[in-house]
Amino acid sequence: MSVVRCSVYLVVLSFLWTFIGGDAAVCVFNTSCILPCSFKPGADVVIHWIHVNGKEITVHSYYHGGDQLAYQDQRFKARTSLFQDQISKGDATLQLSRVELQDQGRYKCYTSTIAGNHESFININVEAPISEVHIQQDENSITCSSEGIYPEPKLTWSTSPPSTNTFKKPTTVQQTDQQLYTISSSLIRVHGVTDLTYSCTVSAGTNQKTTLLKESKSFLQSLWNCPQNEFRHQIFTGLFHLCLCYCVLSFQLLSAVKAVKQRSPVLTRKT
Ligand SMILES: *[C@@H]1O[C@H](CO)[C@@H](O)[C@H](O)[C@H]1NC(C)=O
């Protein structure tokens, strides 16, 4: 009885190993990634790296003592290499460069020599870490954003000291053709005077990044200062125009007075 149960477990375990098991590795988007694989050294080495996501796609092949890339999928073109001097020592490790998000999933390393063949699996997850979190201050809002992220990021705000003077607009998350995420969120300031430090944290997968913004001056002051500059400008332009008007008018007035003065003796002479 226990023998039957044991063999059932074994069958289930080997099934799980084939379809789920294997090592896991995290690759970073747009960098190189190492997919380890080893085998017992022997003559007539054959290596096939296969991406098994529903269908099987050839990533890299090696036989007859060299790379064989005629059946390589276009997606992997010029992005794969084996460590040639290590193959005879039983190392079939693959280097995958310029990692894309589509590279995620399960890989099979098939190796064969005259001594026999072997299969192993590795699961690849791709992450695009948060490189920068930008905070931008506008007249009455503060916007935090970050781009080029995978997996889907989250964004949180906090202020120091804690404040209820802000209203948070809904966070927007967009995905590019390359499956990378862009995230953005704005805080609207509701009341006047605030002298806060704003903190925006973006997190995705295992990494997170925070940027702080210390408000340079109170909101009221910034409201006051901004139009004041424009106002000042308008006053100066106004004064300049007034001066110009005054000059032109007084010049014409002067000429008119002169003309009248020149004409008036003629008039007196006539009478
Ligand atoms: C990938 O990296 C290269 C340089 O290593 C850079 O020029 C390029 O902009 C990067 N691409 C993306 C989509 O980040």
Automatic annotation (TrEMBL):
Segments forming domain Ig-like: 22-125, 141-213
Leader sequence segment: 1-24
BP-aspect Gene Ontology terms: cell surface receptor signaling pathway; cellular response to lipopolysaccharide; immune response; negative regulation of T cell proliferation; positive regulation of T cell proliferation; T cell costimulation
SMART domains: IGv
Gene3D superfamilies associated with the record: Immunoglobulins
Full protein name: Ig-like domain-containing protein
Species: Sparus aurata
Chief location bin: membrane
Membrane topology: Single-pass type I membrane protein
Membrane spanning residue stretches: 235-254
Cellular compartments annotated: Cell membrane
GO CC list: external side of plasma membrane
Sorted UniProt keywords: Cell membrane, Disulfide bond, Glycoprotein, Immunoglobulin domain, Membrane, Receptor, Signal, Transmembrane, Transmembrane helix
InterPro entries assigned: BTN3A2-like_Ig-C (IPR053896), Ig-like_dom (IPR007110), Ig-like_dom_sf (IPR036179), Ig-like_fold (IPR013783), Ig_V-set (IPR013106), T-cell_Activation_Regulation (IPR051713)
